[in-house]
Amino acid sequence: MTWSDLTSRDLPQPTSTHAYGDNPAQIADLWLPDGPSPHPAVLMVHGGCWQKAIADRTLMNYAAEDLRQRGLAVWNIEYRGVDEIGGGYPGTFLDVSMATNMLVEKGPKLGLAVEQIVAIGHSAGGHLAAWLAAQPNLRSDSDVSSGHTAPLAAVIISGGLADLEASEPVTLESCLGSIIDDLTGSPDEGRLRVFSDTSPTELLPVDAILISVNGDKDRIAPPELGRSFTKAVRAAGGQANYIEIRNAGHVELISPGTEAFEVQAKLIESYVNR
User: Fold this and answer.
1) Which of the chain's ends, N or C, has fewer CB atoms near its CB within 10 Å?
2) Are 79 and 96 in contact (CB under 8 A)?
């Protein structure tokens, strides 16, 4: 599939939009299903190579609406990209943390069950969703440590670039290599290795189960990334699964109606109901 195969569809709209900060990018869309509350909550993190010029949260509207129709409440977050003022290190990380914290704090009043949240992040969003699960392992003096943690039961890393160091040489240069310094920040005496607080691989193990789902024909997030990240999680003593979808690329993963999306939707349903 191409991006236009997805974006040429009629764009669904969320139930409501909520600000978690003063910046215009610090917002999250709520997709609320019909029926009595509380509704199981899904945290959704869009990709776009960490760059707003490539994609924003609306790219996930199609997936959010499909999950909403399945009876799941979706919290689809926006955040500052590395190409926006205040984005990159540490702003991008602090944004996704604040957006998630708002879900935990305000969710019950909005009719959401937040005791066992399932997250799904696509592409760069897969990195950020896995990073959210690793927040408890951050050093308290890290610039990206917000003091917040989220009760994530599972994270679906959908065509994700969770391991920044491993992803840089195999994904598109324009996706990561050209912006990695902005994303990870510069080393200093207290943080000689920039991946130490920005790459989930270096913050293992985590409590959530981390499930990597990759298309076998994905050129942005090749399957080897999901396989190697799964091995790293298990080696660190964590829980992880790897699922490879045949004849699927990057777009199919967030396109309702495809096998790739259906597999992930079923995974989400199974974990919110545990």
Assistant:
1) C
2) yes
CA gap 167, 160 in Å, rounded: 9
∠ CA 91-11-1, nearest 5°, is 85
How far is 161 from 225, CA to CA, in rounded Å? 7
Q: Domain 3-272: what homologous superfamily?
A: Alpha/Beta hydrolase fold, catalytic domain (3.40.50.1820)
Q: What's residue 154's pLDDT?
A: 98
The Cα–Cα gap between 100 and 113 comes to 14
What global pTM score does this model have?
Answer: 0.97
Q: Which CA distances in Å does 139 have to 2, 88, 143, 159, 233?
A: 41, 19, 9, 28, 19
Averaged pLDDT in 10-residue chunks for the chain of 274 residues: 97 98 98 96 98 98 98 98 98 98 97 96 98 96 91 97 98 98 94 97 97 98 98 98 98 98 98 84
Spatial separation of the C-alpha atoms in residues 190 and 228, rounded to whole Å:
28
Helix (H/G/I), strand (E/B), else coil: 13: coil
Name which of 41, 20, 63, 46 is nearest 107 in CA terms. Answer: 41
* Residue 261 token pair: 């999306």
| CA 166 and chain centroid, separation | 18
Q: What are phi and psi of 14, to 5 degrees?
A: -75, 170
Contact yes or no for 239/206 (Cβ under 8 A): no
CB atoms within 10 A of CB 231: 12
- How many CA atoms, within 13 angstroms, populate the side-chain half-sphere of residue 219? 5
Helix (H, G, I), strand (E, B) or coil at 30: strand
3 state DSSP class of 199: coil
The reply to whether omega before 200 is within 30° of 0 (cis) is no
The predicted structure's pLDDT at residue 273: 78
Q: Are 106 and 16 in contact (CB under 8 A)?
A: no
